[in-house]
Amino acid sequence: MTQVAAPTSRTYRDYAQPLWRRILVSRESAVFVALILVIIVASVSVKHFATPITLTYLLLDIAPILLIALPMTLVIITGEIDLSVASVAALASVTLGTLHQSGMPLELAALVALVVGALAGAINGFLITVVGLPSLAVTIGTLALFRGLAVGLLGTTAVTDFTEFWKVLAKSKIGASAIPSVVIVIAVLAVIFAIVLHFTRFGRGIFAIGLSAEAAHFSGIQVERTKFILFVLSGLVSALAGIFYTLRFSSARGDNQTGLELAVIAAVLLGGVSIFGGRGALAGVLAGVLLIGTLGSALRLASVTSDVINIVTGSLLIASVVSTSVLAWIHKKRSAPNHNK
Predict the structure, then answer these.
(1) Nearest to 69 by CA among 211, 305, 237
(2) Cβ distance 309 to 257 under 8 Å?
(3) What is the pLDDT along the chain (341 residues), one digit of tens a residue?
C-alpha cells in the first residue's frame, strides 16, 4: 500500500487544546457514545437482549474479532493492511484438527498451529518488506492461498473429536458471571498491545511509519523490520483466534470464519484508525468491535437476516472511511482563517 501522509494526523494546535476537550471530542469517544446508545436502545426495544446469556454469546462471538483487531490496528496504522487473517485462522484450525486426529496431543497440535500462523504472517511480511510488493495485493493473494490449503487438507469434511476438557474451557465463564474466560486472554493481550503501541519507542515508530515511511527511515526507524514483525504478529494472533473458534464449536473446517476480515477491518476503521496510516488508538478499536458485535447481536435477536446485518457492517465500514476524510476537510477549513492571521 502506498504510503501517504494521514490527512487526520494531529497537529500542534490539536495538542494545545485542554486534555479533557481532546478526549471528549475525539473519534474514539464518539464510538463509545454510539456503543452506549445502541445498548440502551436494544435493551429497551429488543426482547431478551438485556440478559446474561446474550452477554455471554455476544462476547464469545466477537472474541476472534477482538483478538485479530489487536495486531490489525498496528498494521493499518503503518499504512498497510492484512486481508488474509481469516484464511490464516482457518489454516490454523485445520492444522489443529488434522494433527489431533492423527494422535498428536491437543496442546502440541495447538502449538504447531500457532507456528503455522506465524509462518503465514512471515510469508506476507517477506513479500511486502523484502520483495517490495503492495500489502493489498499480497494479502489478497495469500487470502486465497491459505484458504485453498485449508480446504485442500480437509476437503468438505470436519474434525470434531476434540478433548472434552478443552471444549468446555473454550466456553467456560469467569466464576458465576456471564463473562467468558476467553475475555481474560483478550484483556491481557489488549493491555500488552496498548502499552507497546502507546508507551514504547517501537509504538512511536509505528505511528511515524504511517505518517511517512521515508521520513521514518531517515529518523533511524527500521521500517521493513517493524512491518515484518507486525505481519508475523498478525498471523500468530489470527491462528490463536482460529484455535479458539475451533474448540468453541468443536469443529475444524477449511471454511471456518470466512469473511471475518471484513468485520475486523470495519471495527478497526470504525474505532478511529485512519486507513491512510499514522493515527489510531486501541481503546477506540475495542469500542468499535463491541459496537459492531452489539449491533449484530441486537439485529439477530430482532429476527433480522444475516444479509441485512452484512449490509449494515459494510455500510459502517464505508461510513468510517468517508467520515474520516470529511472530518479532516472540515478541520482544515476551520483552521484556515487562523493560519492567515
Answers:
(1) 237
(2) no
(3) 444 444 444 443 443 445 444 444 567 788 888 899 999 999 999 988 989 999 999 999 999 999 999 999 999 999 999 999 999 999 999 999 999 999 999 999 999 999 999 999 999 999 999 999 999 999 999 999 999 999 998 877 899 888 889 889 999 999 889 999 999 999 999 999 999 999 999 999 999 999 999 999 999 999 999 999 999 999 999 999 999 999 999 999 998 988 899 889 988 988 889 888 888 889 999 999 999 999 999 999 988 888 888 888 778 778 767 766 666 676 667 666 555 54
b or e along 68-104 (b: 16 or more beta carbons within 10 Å of the residue's beta carbon)?
bbbbbbbbbbbbbbbbbbbbbbbbbbbbbbbbbbeee
DSSP classification of residue 155: T
Q: Give Cα 158 distance to the centre of its chain.
A: 26
**How many angstroms separate the CA atoms of 202 and 221, rounded?**
9
DSSP 37-89: HHHHHHHHHSTT-SSHHHHHHHHHHHHHHHHHHHHHHHHHHTT-----HHHHH
Closest CA to 160 of 231, 249, 35: 249
Angle at 85 between CA 84 and CA 90, to 5 degrees: 100
Residues 6+ apart with CB under 8 A from 10: 279
Q: Round to whole Å and give the CA distance between 240 and 68.
A: 9
Side chain identity at 199, as an amino acid letter?
A: F
Contact present, 293 and 58 (Cβ < 8 Å)? yes
Q: Retrieve residue 173's grid coordinates.
A: 465463564
Q: Distance between CA atoms of 230 and 240, rounded to whole angstroms?
A: 15
The model's pTM is 0.87
Residue 237 one-letter amino acid: V
Residue with cell 502506498: 2
Give the number of other Cβ atoms within 10 Å of residue 219's Cβ: 13
* Domains of the chain and CATH, by start: 12-335 (1.10.3470)
